[in-house]
Amino acid sequence: MPFPTLFLFLSLQQTATASTPRHLRAVEAPPEAWADLFAPTRPVRLFWNGEARFGVEVEERGAWRLLTEEAAPGWTSPPLPRGTRLRTVSPDGEVGTPVQAWTVSTPADLARLSAKQPALVGSQVVDIETDASGAPWNASLGGGLARLDPATLAPVTLTTRDGLPSDWVVAVAPAPDGLWAGTAAGLARVEPGPVPGSWRVSEVVDDHDGLPSRYVQALLADGPSLWVGTFQGLARRDRGSISTLLGPWSVFSLLRGTDGRVWAGYEGLLGLPEADPIEGVPDTIDVYDVEPLPSNGALLATLQEGLVLLEDGRRRTLWTGNDQDGAYAVARAGDAWLVAGAGAGLVTVSPEGGVLRRWTAADGLPSEVVNEVVPDRAWNPASPQEPAQSVWIGTARGVARLDPTTGSVQVAPLAPLHAGNAWQRMAPAGRRIVVMGDDGLAFAGPRRLLDGPRTRRVAPGLLDRTRTGGSAWEVREAGVLQHRIFKRDRLHHLPGRPVGIVTAAGVPFVGTDQGLFRYEAERGRFAPVAGLRSVTRMVPEADGTIWLISEGRVASLGPDLSIRYYLRTRPPLDLDPDRGVVWVGTEDGMDVVAKDSGEVVELLRTLQTRVRAEAVAADGFGGCWVATDVGQVLHLDIGQTSTATLVDLADGEPPKVRDLLPRGRDGAWVLTDQGLFAVAVPAQR
User: Fold this and answer.
1) C-alpha distances in Å from residue 490, one per residue of 209, 470, 606
2) What is the span of the domain harbouring residue 464?
3) Looking at the 3D structure of the chain, how many domains does it have?
4) Nearest CA-CA partner of 577 in 610, 619, 628
5) Which phi and psi angles does 175 have, rounded to 5°?
6) What CATH code is carried by the domain that includes residue 326?
7) Phi and psi (nearest 5°) for 132?
């Protein structure tokens, strides 16, 4: 693939023909063991809308071979070389458009591998709805869709490997005989599977079918109709036909209002289908949730004004939220109201206004950040005086059920390497890797020594770690924590915000936005290195040299603390030395810098496109892994600069890459704000 065409980011939709089923999707089967992550072969699953059956062919050395004469949606192939293309064949012999399976193991895949028992694979739960049986369905960002058993809290999880268009699930709406899930890449219909207790994706709908946007963030099942709120407007689906009602702005919530109409949290609150503004709600507030009251009033969870009581066209604020967050959701439990206040936690508000109690991690909640709260059974207009006693709570670390009367909290199990956590950095650890972040440490690999993330509560926000001499060092947002053998731990406070720590010639160096600091063992303190300010990245070499980005320039710090600067243009974002060169990711493409001469070779830079290379990592074999700001990963070879391997990490919400760690020349670990990915190079066929 020539470089000028590498970054034409297209979203191609399969045309529904007799030979190509609608919404045909090919994904690699989830790995069953750590050894499968970078294996050269992997089974492939095919999904499409409807129940029609097709034959399936595989491409081998430019020719096509029949794998099966008849396959149903969800069919799984035998192990095939990674990067293999497949196509469907209609009963009359017409062949369809070839599709290629992903070559990425998602955060949800790795979370499943890290769990010893059924557990939630996604942590950031943003929507919960209970079905007719009382079981909660949970939408998580990066972890797909999960249904909890109300008795045991054990989950059944659906992800892209099960046919969802994206693991980034934003909204759910139970419906007769199943439910709808709104994702960052479209709408999915989920129905009971052939095995009791199983579920399957039977249909996918996106903007090619008439939705205003692929990003679906609010849903309401309304008899035979389905209201669909997207990032760019509202649509209604009636028996397969889709019509657009509002646009182009974002729809945050959908529910049945106190006047019998459907209400949409949009620019204010609108009554549908006429889109009349609800009296008393200005178009300057974002309404995330509405709870009807027996008195024909309503409670509004809003971003700008917190929890608002709406009665007779007048509104009164009951709780304002904190400095950064308003109210995200509200539910009644007993005689009070529980409010999901994001960073403010879960707050109990009296009917008259005023905070009665704030629920935190000290009370057993899995996280201080609360995104969602719903009753453990749906509100019944026929019995408004009998509210639910317990509520389901969606947080930044999974799901809990709370009984506000007794204070009892049940927390759903969460996988150790869950998706959606704020992991910051990776490091090799033998055959495994260790990832670091807000939860402390977690391991990925063939052998687990920890049951789950391990957190030291001395200071929050683990950013990086290293070992040297008789100490282990942890860089946290509050400073550098030194764990000394046979001595008490010590926290070193440094100017500015730390970004990482490296060891060169046995000496720790810490970079901050105020400069570089070197540990002086004889004085037991960190001292600034003169001449280096605003350090954003550091990489050591075996000879004691540290390569770093300081004040937006590439520099090297020798063992004698001598400084040499290299690039002065195209602000660098990341770098990694390898043999005689340094790979540098910039705001506009790649630079390969010769260490001795400073000569620069430019890559991924064209007049047509602008490539922001946010993370780079040399593979040790003359090549380099590169991650871009649109969630794509490339493998480059300096000897073959006319070709590269391009992989999309996720369909829908592009993840922000924070770190890369090669696994030889055939694969790499990719750490993002959505979790950890494993990328394998497709076979050259």
Assistant:
1) 60, 13, 50
2) 456-565
3) 3
4) 619
5) -140, 165
6) 2.130.10.10
7) -60, -25
